[in-house]
UniProtKB/TrEMBL annotation:
<feature type="domain" description="ABC transporter">
    <location>
        <begin position="4"/>
        <end position="237"/>
    </location>
</feature>
<comment type="similarity">
    <text>Belongs to the ABC transporter superfamily.</text>
</comment>
<protein>
    <submittedName>
        <fullName>ABC transporter ATP-binding protein</fullName>
    </submittedName>
</protein>
<comment type="function">
    <text>Probably part of an ABC transporter complex. Responsible for energy coupling to the transport system.</text>
</comment>
Amino acid sequence: PPVLELRDLSFGYEKNHPVLHGVSLKLGKGEMVSIAGKNGAGKSTVSKLICGFYRPSSGSILMNGRDIGSDSIKERASRIGFVMQNPNHMISKTMIFDEVALGLKVRGMAESDIEKRVHEVLQVCGLYPFRNWPVSALSYGQKKRVTIASILVLQPEIIILDEPTAGQDYRHYNEMMEFLLGLSKQGITVIMITHDMHLMLEYAQRTIVLADGRKIADDRPERVLSDKAIIHSANLKETSLYR
Ligand code: ADP
Ligand code: MG
Ligand code: MG
């Protein structure tokens, strides 16, 4: 079965105001996909339902064939990591090592095992040289990688990123994308919410487009992006910056 399956998912924040109308989706292990759509299309809402912040009004969410509808946010959090759009709120003086180790401490893992795993993940994320720095001293891109590292130590099956490359310069853009590609090759399913057509063409295996709470496209990026009507309804933009 797929790692993640959404079956006919509907939802509204308020009564009689549905914002998702029967969204279905299947994602395989290690797949790397992008989700696009205009502001208000329902991208964040889908993510919040997957993570369990809200319950769908109808439809179901399955992981590896099992309905996770009654699993708590906490139960899902170790299997599905959500990387929020803006890590700039990270102003704490906590050392990077401790920030990334926190989730494992909460789990009650032994100190020596924590140290081993955190060091491995910090290496993978290019953060090992900064392990004793305070989080507040890092750049935007580095903070984003701290957020990702905090999730990776928990060994998730799925990672969802809201605009993973927003606000990053050319070098960090490429670093971030190659890093995410590496994760997908290790079998982690990567979902990127993005409007960046270059990113989709270069890195996504599929592009899913939402419009007004409905899925209007789900295909290889070059096919989706060859449709002018879809580009328009998703408000997609050519980014010449990274070519
Ligand atoms: P996107 O992430 O694609 O920009 P959202 O999922 O944030 O879209 O929003 C989908 C719809 O749900 C929009 O109409 C938005 O106004 C509405 N919405 C989002 N969050 C809330 C909320 N907390 N309460 C009420 N309506 C919301
Ligand atoms: Mg929005
Ligand atoms: Mg959003």
